[in-house]
Amino acid sequence: MNKLIYLALFILSHNSMFSQKKNVYMIFHENSVEQCTVENEYGETSKIMKYRKTVNSKNNVKFSICLESFIAEMHDDTSLVDIDKIKVSTLNDLFEMEKKEIKKSINNSQNGTLNILNRQDSFVVYILIKDSSKNNYLCYPVQWIEKSH
Fold first, then answer.
1. Per-residue pLDDT tens for 25-47?
2. Among 74, 82, 67, which Cα is nearest to 140's?
3. Cβ contacts of residue 45 below 8 Å, gap of 6+?
4. Residue 43 region, left (φ>0) first, then alpha (ψ -120 to 50), else beta?
């Protein structure tokens, strides 16, 4: 019985070693009036608020940064992080990481075709919202979903 437990632990740790997820921390500027220029399918441009927060239900919040959306399940156990102790990324950084994961997926595939990249398998995205203290931010794990427009 003990051998089975050790074997199971070995397999789980071995799999997690090779499938390390990347933690991505992005600041969400809740009170910002910054805007993004977006283009519709006809090539027409318009401006939208860069940072948008929508409360979908008591425990479900949608954070949008330009056209990208992230869903958070809100819990009382949200952590505080010191911004000086983590690497903060931008939306462009996230896109670059995704491109690298796609390229790696193509290179690792058997016949050169792309296996569908599951963002949740590659990244753990966190939205950071400024807390009242100097360098601390509330840290929400989120799921990266499709474009919001």
1. 899 998 899 999 999 889 999 99
2. 74
3. 37, 38, 39
4. left
